[in-house]
Design a protein that fits this description.
With 601 residues, this protein is an alpha+beta fold. It folds into five domains: 87 residues, Zinc finger, CHC2-typedomain (DNA Primase, Chain A, Alpha-Beta Complex), CATH 3.90.580.10; 136 residues, DNA primase, catalytic core, N-terminal domain (DNA primase DNAg catalytic core, N-terminal domain, Alpha-Beta Complex); 117 residues, Dna Topoisomerase Vi A Subunit, Chain: A, domain 2, CATH 3.40.1360; 69 residues, no CATH class; 149 residues, DNAb Helicase, Chain A (Orthogonal Bundle). It is built from 26 helices and 16 strands. Strand 3 and strand 4 form a beta hairpin. Helix 3 crosses helix 4 and helix 25 runs antiparallel to helix 26. The longest helix is centred in the C-terminal third of the chain and has 30 residues. The N terminus is likely disordered.
Length: 601
């Protein structure tokens, strides 16, 4: 929804910052652009491509990728590229333009919380620096030798800020107290512990240290791997006001710059570092805890898909099966990496190398098919009764697909793999409840249902395309609005974002306040999320098939599009009128308007 994102700052100030930052200049510092006609083009930084489909419009002050659909204004670009909040992106642009933003007025309690967070960031940074230098000193020889034996290069250890906690019980405490940090802060940060026997002492000792950083490269916690056989093997920082294990991922601060459309999700720190060292900089890991919904949501902010690179032992398989459901619910596509006969990515890379690993990534298995393959191992497929039980289990799992087309596609794949007729499998699916897979009769999925879904999807795409064509044409030729104004309004657009955009845009055209270089960029800033901003941008990036046509031909095409938008609107009202007779009079009026608009052509 609009008007929530910039709650900290007035719209006039946001518009001033946008006007002071030319989108071509800003994007050029991240992407190599080349002018082609009225726009600038380059390789999209948000997905892998070989031919430039990333367009930046100087006149509209917006960008759009015709390959992946990403788009928006200069704020959207920074929010996506740097993974910043609206306020962070606005502040970066305001600093760039030399425009002072007013300070945010925190409440006393909020100010106290913010000050505590800054103190925790500061003490963690100092601790990370101390551990880093200790690893490279005489006291750190044990840790350095261990890392070198694991094959880590000096550059890789530096990139991840690896360090060492010595065998002494209070070296770090003494150092941090000399820097002015209090005992209470050291305990709250999880860097020190207190008990009656030892008093205040270092939490980490005789361990290789892995600083954990957030997406802004700030140290928020630590993981420590013990040298020797002491327990626990890995020790992690506790939860703090700046460290929520369920909402952070190890290596994400680096992986976000990989610009891949997927991440490699693994189990441990060393796996991440080994993969980065081999060139797979899209690798991340959970933080010593079970994978969470929060981490799945975090992944979705950066990529559309994940490849699980878990250990190949039973524990790894169990974790993969558990996390598949979490990722599915979060809307993240998932595949499984097969690393047999090796245990983990680190072991595989050392034995087989980068090219073999790349091949395994290309062959990564579909998550659902992996789940069924693991389920097959529970049955004796030579026994007819158990084979039948397995088929029933497949049918129950197919019930999880609510989309009829998707369910049919998976049924086809399973039927060919497990030697059961597709019709038989779908018949079994129809006998189970779609939600839970219980043995309750359910409506069979009929071909007519699939055909209806396909037709509805085609209709929706046609509506979106026509509305985008109309808005794009009016953004370039605003004077054409007068031709259609008596017959078409924002109410003729789809409910939700298209209608909200049309209301603001058509109002500006009607009041003659539309300015191409300012309006669209400001309009995009009215919406909260990057997804909404991309959708707004896409509405204004739909071009006629022949933009070089004569003016009169373009006007005729424009009127054709206006009629299409109106016709779709009439169709929606017709459907609603079947349930609400009060709409019949409005339907008659809208049909008259459509007829008049059609005659204008």
């Amino acid at each position: 929804m609009p008007n929530n994102t910039n709650m900290y700052y007035p719209d006039e100030l946001v518009e001033e910052v946008l006007a002071a930052n030319d989108i071509v200049d800003v994007v050029s510092s991240y992407v190599q652009l080349k002018r082609s006609g009225a726009n600038y083009f380059g390789l999209c930084p948000f997905h892998n491509e070989k031919s430039p489909s990333f367009s930046v419009s100087k006149s509209k002050q917006i960008f759009h990728c015709f390959g992946c659909g990403t788009g928006g204004n200069v704020l959207t670009f920074l929010m996506k590229y740097e993974n910043q909040t609206f306020q962070e992106a606005l502040r970066q642009l305001s600093d760039r333009a030399g425009i002072a933003l007013p300070e945010i007025n925190y409440s006393a309690e909020a100010k106290k919380r913010e000050e505590k967070k800054q103190q925790l960031f500061a003490v963690n940074k100092e601790a990370a620096t101390y551990y880093y230098h200790l690893l490279r000193s005489d006291k750190g020889r044990t840790g350095l030798s261990y890392l070198q034996k694991r094959g880590l290069t000096d550059d890789m250890m530096k990139q991840f800020g690896l360090g060492y906690a010595s065998g002494s019980s209070n070296d770090l405490i003494r150092h941090l107290k000399e820097k002015g940090f209090s005992d209470d802060l050291l305990i709250e940060a999880g860097l020190a512990s207190f008990d009656e026997k030892q008093g205040l002492h270092d939490k980490f000792w005789n361990r290789v240290m892995f600083p954990i950083q957030d997406v802004s490269n700030r140290v928020i916690g630590f993981g420590g791997r013990v040298m020797g056989d002491a327990k626990p093997k890995y020790l992690n920082s506790p939860e703090t006001p700046i460290f929520d294990k369920s909402r952070n991922l190890y290596g994400l601060n680096i992986a976000k710059r990989s610009r891949k459309n997927h991440f490699l999700l693994c189990e441990g720190y060393m796996d991440v570092i080994a993969m980065h060292m081999a060139g797979f900089t899209e690798a991340v890991a959970s933080l010593g805890t079970s994978f969470t919904e929060g981490q799945a949501s975090l992944l979705k902010r950066y990529v559309s898909g994940v490849i699980l690179a878990y250990d190949s032992d039973q524990a790894g398989v169990t974790a993969a099966l558990r996390n598949l459901e979490i990722l599915r619910k979060a809307g993240v596509a998932c595949k499984i990496l097969d690393m047999t006969p090796y245990k983990d990515p680190d072991e595989f890379l050392q034995a087989e190398g980068k090219e073999a690993f790349e091949e395994r990534i290309r062959q990564a298995e579909n998550a659902f098919l992996f789940k069924i393959r693991m389920k097959e191992k529970e049955f004796n497929m030579e026994d007819p009764e158990e084979r039948t039980a397995f088929y029933r289990e497949m049918a129950r799992n197919l019930c999880s697909f609510t989309d009829a087309v998707e369910r049919e596609n998976y049924a086809k794949a399973l039927s060919s793999r497990y030697y059961i007729k597709e019709e038989q499998l779908l018949s079994m699916v129809a006998s189970y409840d779609r939600a839970g897979g219980e043995n309750i009769p359910a409506r069979p999925v009929r071909q007519g249902t699939i055909r209806k879904q396909v037709q509805e999807e085609k209709w929706k795409r046609s509506v979106r395309h026509s509305e985008g064509l109309l808005l794009t044409a009016l953004s370039v030729k605003p004077d054409w609005f007068a031709r259609i104004e008596p017959f078409l309004s924002a109410d003729d657009f789809e409910e939700g974002l298209p209608k909200e955009v049309a209301e603001a845009f058509l109002k500006a055209l009607k009041e003659h306040t539309y300015e191409e270089e300012k309006f669209l960029s400001s309009l995009i800033s009215m919406f909260d999320t990057a997804e909404e901003q991309e959708a707004v941008s896409a509405l204004f990036q739909t071009e006629f098939e022949n933009p070089q046509a004569e003016e009169e031909q373009q006007k005729k095409a424009f009127l054709d599009v206006a009629c299409a938008v109106k016709r779709f609107s009439v169709e929606r009202i017709t459907e609603k009128a079947k349930e609400d007779p009060n709409l019949l009079l409005k339907l008659v009026e809208e049909k008259k308007a459509l007829d008049t608009l059609s005659r204008l052509r």
